[in-house]
Write a structure and sequence with these properties.
single chain, TIM Barrel, eight-stranded parallel beta barrel, 8 strands, about 15% strand
Length: about 260
C-alpha cells in the first residue's frame, strides 16, 4: 500500500499539553511524521534536525481579517509578501491565507475582492517557489462568519486567479461540518486542491470510531485519483500524541518506523 507524505499541525498536537519543543519534534518524527505545520519559527532548526519538512506557515492573522475586504489589501499583501519571503528563505513549502469574515458581503463581492487581493501575490509566490493555500473553514462552530466556508466559494477564487501557486487547503474536518459529501467534492475539485487537512468531526479529535468521517474511504479516493500532496493531521489528540498520529497515519497507508 503506497503512503502519502504526512505531517502534523504543531498547534493542535500541543494544544492541551506541555512539551519540550525539540524533544517533541523528534518523538513525532520517530512516530512516522514526515513534516510539521505551523511550527514556531524558533523551532524550525530543531524540526530540520529531526528530519521533518517545514510544510506550512500562517501567512497573516487574525483569521477574521482577510482578502474579501479591499480595505485590507495593502496591509495584508505586505504581511503575506513577508511570509512568502520567509518561506522562501527557510524552505517552507506553503503559506496559508484566508478570506476573512463575511460582514454582510455577498458571495460575488467577497470572491471578486479576494481574487483582486491574491492575484498579484500568487505571481510573486510562483516566482519564489512557494504555494499559497486558501483555507476552507467552517462558520458553524469554530469561525463564525468566515466567508470561505464552502468548497465552491474557494474554488471560484482559485479558478479566477488562475495560477498554479494558489490552491485550496481542503480541510475535511471543516467541510464535513459545513457540507459533507466529502468524496464527491474532493473528486470534483482535486485539481484545485493543494493540501489536505484531517480532523475528527465533530470535535476535531482523533481519527477514530468516535467521529463520523470514514477516513479509509477518503484515503482510498485520494490514492485512486493520484493525489501527490501532503496530508496534514490537524486534530487535538485525546491521549498520547504519538499514538494518535500513528493511528491517523495508518488510515493513509503509513509510513511507520
Amino acid at each position: 500500500m503506497s503512503g502519502f507524505r504526512q505531517s502534523f499541525a504543531w498547534w493542535s498536537f500541543t494544544a492541551r499539553r506541555e512539551v519540550e519543543g525539540p524533544a517533541f519534534l523528534a518523538q513525532m518524527a520517530a512516530g512516522g511524521a514526515q513534516g510539521v505545520e505551523m511550527a514556531p519559527e524558533e523551532l524550525w532548526p530543531a524540526a530540520r534536525d529531526a528530519g521533518l519538512a517545514l510544510v506550512t506557515l500562517t501567512g497573516h492573522q487574525p483569521l477574521e481579517i482577510g482578502f474579501n475586504d479591499r480595505d485590507n489589501h495593502l496591509k495584508l499583501q505586505d504581511k503575506v509578501r513577508a511570509s512568502i519571503a520567509l518561506a522562501q528563505t527557510h524552505g517552507v513549502e506553503k503559506v496559508i491565507v484566508f478570506s476573512g469574515d463575511r460582514k454582510g458581503r455577498s458571495d460575488a463581492e467577497g470572491i471578486a475582492n479576494t481574487v483582486e487581493g491574491l492575484a498579484p501575490l500568487a505571481q510573486e509566490a510562483e516566482a519564489a517557489g512557494v504555494m499559497l493555500l486558501l483555507e476552507l473553514l467552517n462558520s458553524k462552530v469554530d469561525h463564525p462568519d468566515q466567508q470561505c466556508d464552502h468548497t465552491a466559494w474557494g474554488a471560484q477564487v482559485v479558478t479566477q486567479v488562475n495560477s498554479p501557486a494558489l490552491r485550496l487547503l481542503y480541510d475535511a474536518y471543516h467541510m464535513q461540518l459545513m457540507e459533507g459529501d466529502l468524496l464527491r467534492t474532493i473528486r470534483a475539485n482535486l485539481p484545485l486542491i493543494g493540501h489536505i487537512h484531517t480532523g475528527g468531526a465533530p470535535g476535531r479529535r482523533d481519527l477514530d470510531d468516535r467521529q463520523e468521517i470514514h477516513w479509509p474511504a477518503v484515503a482510498g479516493l485520494l490514492r485512486h485519483l493520484g493525489y501527490e500532496g501532503w496530508v496534514g493531521h490537524e486534530f487535538i489528540p485525546r491521549d498520547d500524541p504519538v499514538g494518535a498520529l500513528r493511528q491517523a497515519m495508518d488510515h493513509f497507508g503509513g509510513p511507520r518506523p
